[in-house]
Amino acid sequence: MLWGTTGTAQTFMPQTVHPLAVGASRLAVGGFTLLFIMLILRKINFRDWPWKSTVLAALAMAIFQYCFFTSIRLTGIAIGTVVAIGSAPMFSGLIEWLILKTRPTKIWLTATSMAVVGCILLFSNKEGLVVNPIGVSLSLFAGLLFAFYTLFNKEVLKKAEAIPSVAVIFSISAFMLMPFLFLFETKGLVTVSGISTVVYLGISTVVYLGIATTSIAYILFSVGLRKIPSSSAVTLSLAEPLTAAVLSVVIVGERLDLLSWTGITLLLGGILVLTFSGRRKKAAVE
Q1: pLDDT tens across 172-191, in order?
Q2: Quick one: pLDDT at residue 49?
């Protein structure tokens, strides 16, 4: 749900700031803030740290930012979001099946199918859709990268706590994306003369994106990832477009048609199926 506030928050961002610069900034704020706190508290043991999985997770997240924001620029927010977020659960299930030799359950297949169809219906009323082959390909690759990030992050969490793992992974990702802050437009964020309302809006939005939608959101995601399969975690992350749609109506003032509300119902239904099936399994074990 915190991820779902990203789009609404970015409406307060000055339009002069390039989306990829926003992505780099939020990772830097979220990652470096947590890393600073963890270093002070001495919560990170660098000697025994799972560096291979950490670097792979950081690389997947860094490239994800590039592919996702570039795909949105080429093919639009609706198509880019649906393809990237909607394909991630399917990729995650395939990765678990092919690499971890874990066959998808019928409950996961049902919940994921409902959620993905709901996601497609949710964005079906958007006007001016542009189906750019390169943009769609980048969106698919972004979905694959998020699935791999989840898999690598789960490996890191076997040897490290959630907060230190997020701090290290996102700090490394931020370092990888730092060059984009110099390559793309950041006017209205920090590169204007004097202090103005535009700068305050830019900085405050980046701070929110870094702390709430990056640090806190990924900590919660990582804590949950320790207890459920990667494929289930990625499917549950489809609460992001659900939240974004509700906020677009309540705050931004957009209107959704009957097809989109049907999509919201299917999305919510898929999430509930997966959540309550997990509770039933836990109760049966106890």
Answers
A1: 999 998 888 777 766 666 55
A2: 94
133-156 helix and 51-75 helix, angle to the nearest 10 degrees: 160
Tokens describing residue 2: 């915190």
Return the closest-CA partner of residue 238 out of 96, 65, 113, 137: 113
Type of residue found at 280: R
Share of the chain above pLDDT 70, in %: 85
**CB contact at 8 A, 108 and 274:** yes
Q: Which DSSP symbol is given to 253?
A: -
| The pLDDT of residue 284 | 46
The closest alpha carbon to 191, from 11, 21, 9, 26, belongs to: 21
Which among 222, 232, 239, 224 has a CA at the least distance from the CA of 277?
Answer: 232
In whole angstroms, what is the distance from residue 142 CA to residue 148 CA? 10
Which of 165, 169, 142 is closest to 234 using CA atoms?
Answer: 142
73-106 per-position pLDDT tens digit:
787 666 777 778 878 888 888 888 888 788 878 8
pTM, entire model: 0.81
Instruction: Return the CA Rg of the chain.
Output: 19
Burial degree of 245 (CB within 10 A; 0-12, 13-18, 19+): buried
Query: Per-residue b/e over 17-39, b at no fewer than 16 CB within 10 Å?
Result: bbbbbbbbbbbbbbbbbbbeebe
Element (H, E) at 147: helix 133-156
Q: Give the whole-angstrom CA distance, residue 194 versus residue 258.
A: 48
Residue 263 contacts residue 93 (beta carbons within 8 Å):
no
Inter-residue contact 48 to 159 (CB < 8 Å) = yes
Structure tokens at 194: 């004097």
Q: Name residue 29's amino acid.
A: V
